[in-house]
Amino acid sequence: MSFCTLYFQGGLNYFLANDKPDGRIRYHLERRTSVKDLIESLGPPHTEIGEIRANNHKVGFDFIVSRGDVLVIKPLVPPVDPRRSTLLRPEPVPCFQFVVDVNVGKIAMLLRSLGFDTAYHWTWRDHRIAALAHAEKRIVLTKDIGLLKRKTVTWGLFVRAEEPDAQLGEVLHFFGLHPPFDLFSRCLRCNSLLRKVDKQAIIHRLEPKTRKYFQEFSICPDCRRIYWAGSHQEKLLRRIEDAVGEEPGRWTDRWKTQALGNCNRPEGDNGQ
After folding, report:
1. What is the pTM of this model?
2. Residue 168, burial from CB neighbour count under 10 angstroms (0-12, 13-18, 19+)
3. pLDDT confidence tier of residue 25, bands split at 50, 70 and 90
4. What is the DSSP string of 29-89?
5. Under a CB-based contact definition with an 8 Å cutoff, are residues 181 and 140 in contact?
6. Distance from C-alpha of 116 to C-alpha of 79, rounded to nearest angstrom
7. Taking the CB of residue 100, how many other CB atoms lie within 10 A of it?
8. Structural domain boundaries of the chain?
9. Domain 3-75 has what CATH class?
10. d(CA 98, CA 140)
């Protein structure tokens, strides 16, 4: 018997090349192959896999498939915590930090607004993103299945939603992330941690109304953009609340009472 049988469960059917409603594939083995390579040849990236059973025994991605094997492939089930070691991923990430590619690039600003270290540049190609994810133990967020199949990518998420706000909700739900967040602690443009700055030190850069009505400011130490708390920050908070299904005003009220907000759109930004 030169065949093995694979059963893909849950949402993994989404990635199968052929329409397989029951997720069952009878595969003809022509060469020696690892279960990781076999699974990815059929569509699903390894980053979407939560458990593999071969003949009713849990196995890792390096398991060599033999003729007659029965393989059950299960998806990751939210909430997923990549900080914990597993059989498939023995080296966890130290914290929730991300790298985003251009096809979901707008989510970078939203994640940064929550305080998450999120690396992104629209010019980065797949090899650089994969290398950065490996070197800095970052979680890849993308719609590029090929990127997620790279061996140097350990943790990643194929983002299914199309709109940025919905994508944010999907990421937070998948990884079980919830308030309190370190709101507005990072530069929305370059990801650096902001620091407080005395108003008098940057007063020459402020518009008249900003100079008159606002007293507390932060600055990005790298790109030198100035941030302050204002009505547009509240609008961004409402977007985030909608994305994660929070009660309207919950985070906005917390920002008002605890002065968590320390940034706004960059100086000169038109808010678009």
Report:
1. 0.88
2. buried
3. very high
4. --S--BHHHHHHHTS--GGGEEEEEETTEE--TTPBP-TT-EEEEEE--SSP-TTS--SS-
5. no
6. 17
7. 28
8. 3-75, 98-174, 195-258
9. alpha beta
10. 6
